[in-house]
């Protein structure tokens, strides 16, 4: 199942791209349909198809040149008409693609739970068992969170059900699949809203199908505290400039009653908040009556707000992204150059034939240890040998004392015990 997961994601992404492209085209130009106040159908049908494609291309060419596509003799719908915005995505081609997209979304959600359900069940059982064991020790019981103490009041079956429900509803993977499926259903049920809902599904597809974009999004989530504090600082700075403008420069803005006036502190702050970060504040100010104070104010505002504060936001996100990428690179290098079982570096096996590669494949293959854990899980506990019972108890705690950490027979390191 995991082996075909990337293929499923690619199929879903391609279908989503085709669907959004179709919605974009049909909602960007007005195509005259043959036989509907447009090009007439002929007996053979060839001329009608040619006429339809000519109308499609000419409509696209007119749209790219800024032509609004007003209603004419060929029956082209006016793209400025509000009715066009609500009906452009409601046509048979997009509906067929929407059905395929909805079925793909359902299969994607079901496949996710088929893969994750056994793992979630095992994690729930381990969590219940660990809570019960920790409750027997007073030191660990005192360190438990209130929610964990509350769980201990229920039976094991109820605890497992509650933990399973939490994993199904609140895990990041489950939440993303729920949102994706919800948008796919809404896009299918409400044809007039398809451009919006399908653009959201495309965004989810791109983020969860690309590891780099995941790290970009994660960098924003991880640094949310710094971003919120910087946002509050931005609010204060904008308020300072708004207060100064309201008291000392109200006439430098539009006349009272206009859209960008500074007749009140609230209106002055809204002008700075609306245009202060995304454009130059001078663009919404009236023509300068005096040069020196105005130039000084605009330059200070530009340096403090447009340059410094925006750079702080960008710097926080970029630095967090770089830190996450370095941590990921360190983990990948460690996995590639160090034995997962014993922890020895690859350089320790340089004198051995086939060295590190043979060691990780034959001596300390991590998949052999996973197979051992699965074998013990399926085996009857009453038939365990002494070693199997010891390993099973270690896995239940969990502790990994049974692993040969720091020891390797190939390097002549044998446990003295």
Summed up, what is this model?
With 417 residues, the chain is mainly alpha-helical.
Structure description:
- The chain is an all-alpha fold and 417 residues long.
- 67% of the residues lie in helices and 0% in strands.
- The chain has helices at 5-26, 46-64, 82-87, 92-135, 138-142, 146-151, 156-170, 172-189, 194-208, 211-222, 224-248, 265-275, 291-337, 355-363, 366-378, 386-396.
- α1 (5-26) packs across α4 (92-135), α4 (92-135) runs antiparallel to α7 (156-170) and α11 crosses α12.
- The longest helix has 47 residues, at 291-337.
- It is extended and about 95 Å long.
- Residues 31-76 have low confidence and may be disordered.
Give a topology summary:
Layout: H1 5-26, H2 46-64, H3 82-87, H4 92-135, H5 138-142, H6 146-151, H7 156-170, H8 172-189, H9 194-208, H10 211-222, H11 224-248, H12 265-275, H13 291-337, H14 355-363, H15 366-378, H16 386-396
Helix pairs in contact: 1-4, 1-9, 4-7, 4-8, 7-8, 8-9, 10-13, 11-12, 11-13
DSSP E strands, number: 0
Percent strand: under 5%
| Class by SSE composition | mainly alpha
Give the overall form.
Answer: extended
Number of helices: 16
Q: What Rg is obtained from the alpha carbons, in whole angstroms?
A: 32 Å
- Roughly what is the average pLDDT, rounded to an integer? 76
**Helix-residue proportion:** 55-70%
Oligomeric assembly = single chain
Q: What distance separates the N and C termini? A: 42 Å
Low-confidence stretches: 31-76
């Amino acid at each position: 199942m995991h082996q075909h997961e990337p293929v499923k994601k690619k199929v879903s992404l391609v279908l989503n791209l085709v669907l959004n492209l179709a919605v974009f085209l049909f909602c960007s130009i007005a195509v005259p349909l043959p036989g509907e106040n447009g090009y007439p159908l002929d007996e053979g049908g060839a001329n009608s198809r040619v006429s339809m494609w000519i109308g499609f291309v000419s409509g696209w060419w007119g749209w790219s040149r800024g032509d609004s596509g007003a209603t004419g003799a060929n029956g082209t719908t006016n793209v400025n008409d509000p009715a066009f915005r609500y009906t452009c995505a409601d046509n048979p081609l997009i509906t067929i693609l929407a059905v395929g997209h909805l079925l793909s979304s359902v299969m994607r959600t079901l496949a996710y739970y088929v893969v994750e359900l056994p793992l979630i069940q095992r994690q729930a059982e381990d969590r219940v068992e660990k809570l019960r064991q920790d409750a027997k020790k007073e030191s660990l019981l005192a360190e438990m969170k209130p929610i964990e103490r509350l769980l201990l009041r229920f039976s094991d079956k109820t605890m497992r059900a509650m933990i399973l429900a939490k994993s199904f509803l609140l895990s990041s993977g489950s939440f993303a699949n729920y949102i994706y499926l919800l948008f796919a259903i809404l896009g299918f049920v409400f044809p007039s809203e398809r451009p919006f809902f399908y653009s959201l599904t495309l965004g989810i597809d791109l983020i969860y199908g690309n590891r780099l974009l995941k790290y970009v999004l994660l960098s924003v989530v991880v640094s949310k505290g710094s971003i919120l504090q910087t946002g509050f600082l931005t609010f204060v700075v904008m308020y300072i400039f708004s207060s100064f403008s309201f008291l000392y420069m109200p006439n430098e803005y539009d006349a009272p009653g206009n859209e960008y006036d500074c007749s009140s502190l609230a209106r002055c702050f809204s002008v700075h908040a609306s245009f202060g970060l995304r454009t130059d504040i001078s663009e919404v100010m009236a023509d300068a009556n005096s040069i020196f104070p105005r130039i000084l104010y605009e330059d200070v505002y530009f340096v403090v707000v447009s340059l410094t504060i925006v750079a702080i936001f960008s710097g926080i996100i970029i630095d967090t992204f770089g830190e996450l990428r370095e941590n990921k690179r360190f983990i990948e290098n460690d996995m590639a150059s160090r034995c997962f079982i014993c922890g020895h570096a690859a350089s320790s096996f340089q004198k051995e034939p086939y060295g590190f590669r043979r060691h990780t494949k034959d001596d300390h293959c991590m998949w052999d240890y996973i197979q051992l854990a699965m074998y013990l899980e399926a085996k009857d506990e009453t038939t365990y040998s002494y070693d199997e019972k010891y390993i099973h108890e270690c896995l239940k705690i969990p502790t990994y004392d049974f692993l040969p950490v720091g020891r390797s027979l190939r390097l002549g390191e044998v446990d003295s015990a």
